[in-house]
Amino acid sequence: MKKNGKELLGLTASELAVFMTKLGEKPYRGHQIYHSLYREFQFDLSTMTELPKVLRKKLANNKISIPKLDSKQIASDATEKFLLQLEDGEKIECVLIPEKNRQTLCISTQVGCSLNCQFCLTADIGLKRNLSSAEIVGQVLYVLFHKRLKIKSAGPTLHPKLSNIVFMGMGEPLQNLENVTKSLIILSDPEGMGMSPNKITLSTVGLVPQIKKLAQSPVIPNLAISLSATTNIVRNQIIPINRKYPIEQLLQACNEFPLKARQRITFEYVLIDGVNDSDDDARRLIKLLARIKAKVNLLSLNKGKSGNLKSSSNDRIQCFRRILVEKGVPTYIRRPRGSDIFAACGQLHLARQENIFLALPS
Ligand code: SF4
Hints:
Blueprint: H1 13-22, H2 27-38, H3 53-58, E1 68-74, E2 80-85, E3 91-98, E4 103-106, E5 110-112, E6 127-130, H4 133-146, E7 150-151, E8 161-162, E9 164-167, H5 177-188, E10 200-204, H6 208-214, E11 222-226, H7 232-238, H8 247-256, E12 265-271, H9 279-288, E13 294-300, H10 314-326, E14 331-334, H11 350-359
Parallel strand pairs: 4-9, 7-8, 9-10, 10-11, 11-12, 12-13, 13-14
Antiparallel strand pairs: 1-2, 2-3, 3-4, 5-6
């Protein structure tokens, strides 16, 4: 039977306490639900035995909507991509990336995206809608529960750990800032999931006013900027939002973004053959980042999007890196993860993916 009460997932601890007060209950009952949800992974109100039976009955019409698995794929490098179905039937992806000493979960913030970056398959979907805070944290809960993972900072445990969360899946997180902010509060709440904000990274193509708002939010994650060009002429073409917020404005906002002592802003740079990968580009990048505590991640263009964009050669990528490193810019070459199942950066695309899911065993 479809429930039409309140969605309790995605409420902060204090919002849940207020909700219970409005029901005529003590606020601590809200904290009990919060604990059951985010610490015990109990997603069914009727079986939350911490609550008295009469209260469970009273709450029966309310809901906790964890996304459902539609399909799953595992890449040759063990990266796992989950296609999750939401309450209204829309589908989103999240990607679990195992590495030697850590596991990173990449989550989505929108169904599709409106920003039309030229190297990104998600752009082809267009924007269908923003995700709610419930749908954002629901992805994390789904993976934690089904993979039997714990959050690294939540104390000693025999379970494998989820060490990092990155907002780098489908959508531009800063176009959905209100729900992203709320999900950051929930993900990092020591009473709940307890992920350190230092272990959460939000990646944006550079919505300048929203970067300034994020800088004021109660939980400030690491900031990553998808830069991928050193001139406005080139960036206007491959990341069209640059026409509204050109490189100078973007870097000014980065310069003002609050950073802790050893923290740096990550600049992601997708190297595209003959477009943004020249020695001059590398030298311009050094100048652009001169006043910012920055590090650079160089990425190759992943296969997927049709058109005439081609990834730079390995030699060119190495050469580009060398120029940056020689001038003291910490620069890393990131190898693509899960690219054979279209799980790497810029490859998340539902329509195409559904064909792959049909063709491959999950
Ligand atoms: S790169 Fe990010 S902002 Fe650009 S179209 Fe893709 S999802 Fe949207």
